Amino acid sequence: MSWTEKESSLSVPKGLMGSLLQAHVLDTILYLFFTELMRKY
To answer: Model-level pTM greater than 0.85?
Structure first.
């Protein structure tokens, strides 16, 4: 198995995990932001 084949086989799950993590982080930030807003008012 050559290096390029390894890279292409790894890039799909890595990209998927990356986008999932990004979405999770954004959701968490938004959630915390809204809870802070609710606390103030």
So the answer is: no
